[in-house]
Amino acid sequence: MKRFLLLPMACLMAFLLTYVDAASAQQKAAEGPITVGILLLNKPFITEFSGPLDVYHHVPAEKINVFIVSDTDKEQVTYEGMPFRANYTIDNAPKIDVLVVPSGEGSLGEDQQNARVIDWIKKAAGEAKFITSHCQGAFLLGKAGLLDNKAATTFTANTDDLQKQYPACRVQADRRVVVDGNLVTSPGGLPSYEASLYVVEQLFGRDQALSIASALIFGPSNIEAALTTK
After folding, report:
1. Model pTM above 0.70
2. Within a domain: residue 24?
């Protein structure tokens, strides 16, 4: 008798799992694509934002919307001299699911004193699923109070400075990707790709992350740093 009861129960469980998966898919579709906002101030370092930009743009367009945010709508230049113009300013940017704060010429000085930018970072971070920084962008997160009682990292030459300036942060030197809850930081350069791939895995699954890793020709050590980070 018990054997015959197992069949309808198994069918019921299969139905419920299918229903839950369908409902979850419908909910995600209703929520719309994940929004990724990359904050670029005057003279950003190209490597620190091009890595995340490249990784996130490899996610199918219907799943993600990647854009640049700045404190002005005027044309600016990168540290290397390449001109760019933001898609939005901090005054009209939409809600951001993944906040990306790279570094630039002013990260250790004037950008931290830009009250409009720091206030916007606090607001955007409060609504975000993930808060990320690369290289010296961590200093702006520190100024916004987002590193308090958190583990984080920054450019290798600045880890001591970050610890002194923001003592409530547990600075992790010589780490390629540091994850603490929804805070994801890297020292910049190639690890900015790895940290971004970690976020992709969390939001879109391992298969999507591995597909992007293959497209961008990640080496085994890069994949390991990105997808096995705790």
Report:
1. yes
2. no
The domain containing residue 221 runs over which residues? Answer: 32-227
Please state, in angstroms and rounded to a whole number, the distance separating the CA atoms of residues 175 and 219.
Answer: 17
Give the integer Cα–Cα distance in Å for 199 and 169.
21
Tell me the angle at which helices 46-57 and 190-204 cross, rounded to the nearest 10 degrees: 30
Is residue 4 in a domain?
A: no
Residue 218: inside a domain: yes
* Euclidean distance between CA atoms 121 and 140, whole angstroms: 8
Q: What is the DSSP string of 161-226?
A: HHHHH-TTSEE-TT-S-EEETTEEEE-SSHHHHHHHHHHHHHHH-HHHHHHHHHHTT--HHHHHHH
Query: pLDDT (tens digit, 0 to 9) for every residue of the chain, 230 residues total?
Result: 445 444 455 444 444 444 444 444 444 445 799 999 999 999 999 999 999 999 999 999 999 999 999 999 999 999 999 999 999 999 999 999 999 999 999 999 999 999 999 999 999 999 999 999 999 999 999 999 999 999 999 999 999 999 999 999 999 999 999 999 999 999 999 999 999 999 999 999 999 999 999 999 999 999 999 997 54
CA distance 135 to 133: 7
How many domains is the chain partitioned into structurally? 1
- Residue 102 domain flag: yes
Identify the CATH number of the domain in which residue 59 sits.
3.40.50.880
